[in-house]
# Entry
Amino acid sequence: MFTPVTVPLWLAILIALFAGVTFASHFLFPSVRWFFRRRFEKAVARLNARLDRPIELFKLARRQDMIARLLYEPRVLEAVGEHARAMNIPGNVALQEARRYAREIVPAFSATLYFGFAIRAARLISRAFYSVRLGKLDASLKSINPKDTVVFVINHRSNMDYVLVTWLAAQRTNLSYAVGEWARIWPFSRLIRAMGAYFIRRTARNTLYRRVLARYVQMATAEGTTQAIFPEGGLSLSGEIGAAKMGLLSYIAAADMPQGRDVVFVPVGLAYDRVLEDRILVRAQLAGTRQFKASLGEATAFAARVGWHILRRRFRGFGMAAAAFGAPISLRDHKGGIEELGAKLMAAIADVVPVLPVPLIASLLLRGPRTEDALLEMAAATIADLTKRGAVLKLPKMELLLASGLRPLIARGIVAPDLTPIDTPLLQFYAAPMLHWLNQIAATRQT
# Structure
């Protein structure tokens, strides 16, 4: 029993290695995981103490557990069976396809990354590019039942929307975004998934994929996950607030909500004095396609110019960016269908989109003033009308209005110094958010 055994050195190393792995997996790793889990739970508890809406347990679950829960949900299994019969494939093949969709959709939320990195980065980027203003914050937001599921519905003006809203909502809650195909590019996909976002294929026609996505959205909604969605389904090419797409809204509306829990939609209006992607969006609008043709050289040149101005401390930013939050809309109290709900939400968003200097001046220039005095006179009358209608105004004093709203348009070659439009499509793009109010003013004057 105690007789020495001689083994080759490579075998002794292999035995020691296996012994070390066994010890680590059975004793060391569980202790380390328990230690970090305890620290994580304490950190989440501290975060929840200062948030208006605490982080939901649904988001804190392990990603693999969430994938398994989604995959074996009865309605997903039913969809798998229907897909297998329709495509004449084995059930296990259809199940693997559903598993691939589930892995693609389900996020891997990290509270540390979201509150430790994402919020700071969002604040830094927002302030670096814009003078950020928070407009209307409806008092009724504070009266939302903590048990209700809150869904922020936002107009999609720029890819900066994600950054701006993430920062502005940081003191209230953490947001789970629905993001499109652009965000699936590595390594951004890992970062975005860790921030709690879930990926959607906006143009997918696969019925099984749609059923899996629907069940995930409905599960998250039923569990109280705070979400942020862009009902338009993509960036606005014209600058106007478009009609709502019914996909995500229909999934949310069909969720099996627990007793006493409502879905509350919060309209959020975003506005910018300069949209970073403006020329790309206008080109796509003129071409009649959503294929955004932005060359790498063009993007690099733009970044180089901005970086050079920053290094020389001559970068003055891109003007104002503003957000406003409207009155909540209860799904339980809504009496119409999903189309009526979409129309109501988009109208509510339009009512809280802040009025900024550049969009205001752009809309007035399209009406023909050719002197600065005439432009200021028209601006004063329009501002008075907007004030009466309760528009969210984020404007400087009248003596600074031209410097904030007109000079950037002249500097970029959109308008000539004599106030003649040069790039009319781009001027219309910036004026588009004002159409909602200008049409109301015109209708009132006609009556």
In short: Residues 9-50 form the longest helix (42 residues). Confidence is low (pLDDT under 50) at residues 32-37. The first strand starts at residue 131 and ends at 137.
